[in-house]
Design goal:
Elements lengths: L8 H26 L4 H13 L2 H25 L8 H18 L5 H30 L3 H23 L22 H6 L13 H18 L1 H11 L1 H6 L4 H17 L1 H10 L10 H11 L4 H24 L5 H17 L5 H8 L11
Helix pairs in contact: 1-15, 2-3, 2-14, 3-8, 3-11, 3-13, 3-14, 4-5, 4-6, 4-11, 4-12, 4-13, 5-6, 5-11, 8-9, 8-14, 9-11, 13-14, 13-15, 14-15
Length: about 375
């Protein structure tokens, strides 16, 4: 008997997410109608706010940068069948590593600060993820429980440090002093202006390109290296992995450390690119949204890029929508984002049976063959 057929790749990776997205927007349109507004007009404001002018595009890509980092972080753990909910805390502690580099090595030129900041963010984020990884691998503690608890611990640690140790002298605000200018991440409009191209000002900076390089690096690591194979094998079948000479414990620790390191790079965009200092709650929920990004992107770097662009567009376009249509408050914007996450994440298989009946033919006995 031949092996069962599977849905074509373009259906599984393209058509199903598109249908789910359209379903989310259809439900959102019904909600907008229920509050007495025109959903087509609302959609127009979202699209214009996200992609209709240079500044809006810059903000969309700026938000997408954070989502790429956290989406990759969650996806890395998923490939080992680990549900890392600690991206928020790992990004927070990773920002501490970046902040310390920028605060105490600001006398160096930018080309020297940047790799040190990348290493600092990755190291601090990875070490913060190492503890729950060890507890899962060696003590059997569930990764979901430990990572979500470590989010609260990270918040408390950062608050303590920013209030008692790192606070700017003479200030009552829980934040550090500003970084030296050499530690500022170059803005994209500044880099393009240096070669004679005039684009709108926005927070979009060099970290967007770093995020794209991370996507390439994750793809190579997961699908083109022995370590990536061991991570995937351990996640899909730990017993078979052990039989093949692979240590699931090592795979768990490696995948979680890389996951935390990726989340820790959020500070490149937020701290070096925009805030220019370490502030309380600079992560702003990006670590949690990364879970939805990974689900929407099917844990593939390319899918994560598109999912991040979509969520970035909703963030930026939602701000434009709230300005142009005050009836649709920020709560409504969160509702729309929630529907997108619901249909593309939790309900991603809702329309799969119908599509399987269309694209996969069965024999008279109901069994599927090649």
């Amino acid at each position: 008997m031949a092996a069962p057929k599977k849905l074509p790749v373009w259906v599984n990776a393209g058509l199903i997410p598109l249908i789910n997205l359209m379903a989310a927007f259809a439900i959102s349109a019904v909600v907008i109608l229920a509050v007495g507004e025109n959903p087509i007009e609302a959609a127009g404001h979202i699209l214009y706010g996200a992609f209709g002018f240079g500044e809006g595009i810059g903000y969309t890509l700026y938000y997408a940068t954070n989502f790429i980092f956290t989406g990759l972080a969650v996806a890395m753990a998923f490939h080992c069948f680990l549900f890392n909910i600690g991206g928020e805390g790992q990004a927070y502690i990773g920002g501490l590593g970046i902040g310390l580099v920028c605060l105490y090595m600001g006398n160096l030129p930018f080309w020297a600060i940047l790799p040190l900041a990348v290493m600092g963010g990755a190291l601090f984020g990875g070490l913060w993820a190492l503890i729950p990884a060890y507890l899962q691998a060696k003590r059997g503690s569930h990764i979901v429980i430990t990572t979500i608890m470590f989010n609260f611990i990270a918040s408390s640690v950062m608050t303590f440090l920013l209030v008692d140790w790192l606070k700017k002298p003479g200030s009552q605000l829980p934040e550090t002093r500003h970084f030296a200018e050499a530690a500022f991440m170059p803005k994209v409009h500044e880099m393009l202006a240096s070669v004679g191209l005039d684009v709108a000002r926005s927070p979009l900076n060099l970290s967007f390109l770093i995020a794209l390089l991370c996507c390439l690096g994750v793809w190579i690591f997961i699908w083109r290296t022995r370590w990536g194979y061991e991570i995937r094998a351990s996640g899909k079948n730990p017993k078979a992995a052990v039989y093949g000479g692979i240590s699931p414990s090592k795979a768990i620790i490696l995948s979680m450390c890389i996951s935390g390191a990726l989340a820790g790079l959020v500070g490149l965009n937020e701290l070096m690119g925009v805030q220019h200092r370490v502030v309380v709650n600079f992560t702003n929920g990006y670590g949690f949204v990364g879970i939805a990004i990974a689900l929407m992107g099917r844990n593939h770097p390319l899918g994560i890029i598109f999912a991040s662009l979509l969520m970035g567009a909703l963030y930026q376009g939602g701000a434009e929508l709230a300005f142009e249509m005050p009836t649709l408050t920020s709560d409504m914007i969160w509702t729309i984002q929630g529907f997108v996450i619901l249909f593309t994440g939790a309900l991603e298989h809702m329309f799969r049976p119908q599509l399987e009946r269309i694209f996969i033919k069965s024999d008279s006995e109901g069994e599927v063959y090649e």
